[in-house]
Amino acid sequence: MANLKKLLAGAMALCMAGAMFASCGNTEEGGSDSKSNTTNNAGTNDNKGGEDGGNGGEDGGNGGDAAGDLKEDKLPNVPQNVEGSEASKKVLKIYTWNDEFKSRLRDFYPEYDKEASGYDGEKVGEHEYLKDGTEIVWVTTPNADNAYQNKLDEDLKAQADSDDKIDMFLVEADYALKYVNGPYVKPVADLGLTDADLADQYQYTKDIVTDSNGVLEGVSWQATPGLFAYRRDIAKEVLGTDDPTEVQAQLSDWDKFNEVAKKMKDAGYFMLSGYDDAYRTFSNNVSHAWVNNKMQIVVDDNLMKWVDQTKEYSDKGYNNGTSLWDDQWNADQSSAGKVFGFFYSTWGINFTLAGNAGDDLQGQYAVCEGPQAYYWGGTWMCAADGTDNPETVADIMKALTCNKDIMLDITKKTQDYTNNKSAMEELAKDFSSDFLGGQNHIALFTKAAPNIDASKAGPYDQGLNESFQAAFKDYFLGSVDKDTALQNFYKAAQEKYPELTVAE
Asked: CA 191 to CA 214: how far, in whole Å?
């Protein structure tokens, strides 16, 4: 495993070097209102299966390699050589990529000073403060193309010798292990969070941010099981019902899902909006991680099944040819859209779909389990080693991830599925969503969340997921054949991660 430590150190150095050329600035409000398209996550896997390292090769992937999944060793933390300045101690500096966590802190952290921050529930003043006078400074860099990681890597590397300290940063499951096994995170136990504090959190949300020594290095306020969200009006017209149980019976496996896709096309609708919509349901059900312990990229069979299905949907007009987060994809979720449904996890329903649907479709969406269990995304808080505000960081973590009353309040007001088993089980008894026409979708999430398996997470997931989807878009468009798309993926992946090779 010594070579793993060298690898991780090298990977971190590469990211830091790349940051010098990345166009990512220290804007305070530069984040997107949408979740990044990188959330899945081999960390978001409802995966079952062994570490076979190969995928059979029939559909163009790798086969025959018997190496197990890559397992990282925890790097020792870098000694903090400089104490924070007096000015730094009066500032809580938080790194993130969008506005989601900002809204959680502003709306639900009891010590956030709304009046001093000029916060009215939507707009915020030029400066933000906690009630003790601590100023909050957000450093926001978009997540795509590793820009956020590059910026974070560069600044964390400088932390040991800087008196202007980073206090907290956010990570997603696609790259959480890179940081928890890296040298720049303070264990939550060192902040005073106990096993009792964390007892009601879903286990997978701890596993994703537990280092190779078994030490917990982050916490999340949310769990993110996924469902299939569909238009009730279209379901009634084409399937004869909008009842979630009856719709689920017609979508309960991929063969049935494909049959309904044909019905939608025949009726003048699209089953899905674009190329990437079903990706997470496949990538979360792989049998092995992206990278094995020989440092080889291994494409799983299930990813090639996504390729084949998406090519069929594209050729037959079952999708509308969009890409995640583009303007047409967003528009397809509105009343002007002709798309039957979208795969979304918890945050997506309340954070993206509801906003795109607008007032015209209030009550006109519903959710069901869909053809395959999966989860997508999630955001974790990490304390930066060297923070000069450890008590404040600890208090935020406890309030937003361990306080049952606050977790209940978040779910009731935002419909976000929060990371507290007893709170969610309580709500599952009688919750009702106006946006979903009175449906109790919390009950569906509560059944799915305990079964999430994050065992196939790896430090390369964001970059490899992005490169794989981008490479095969050319295939879906018909500009290259499947094998060329696969080779283009390998080329892009190795340009992004030169330390990786391709399994024979």
From this structure: 16
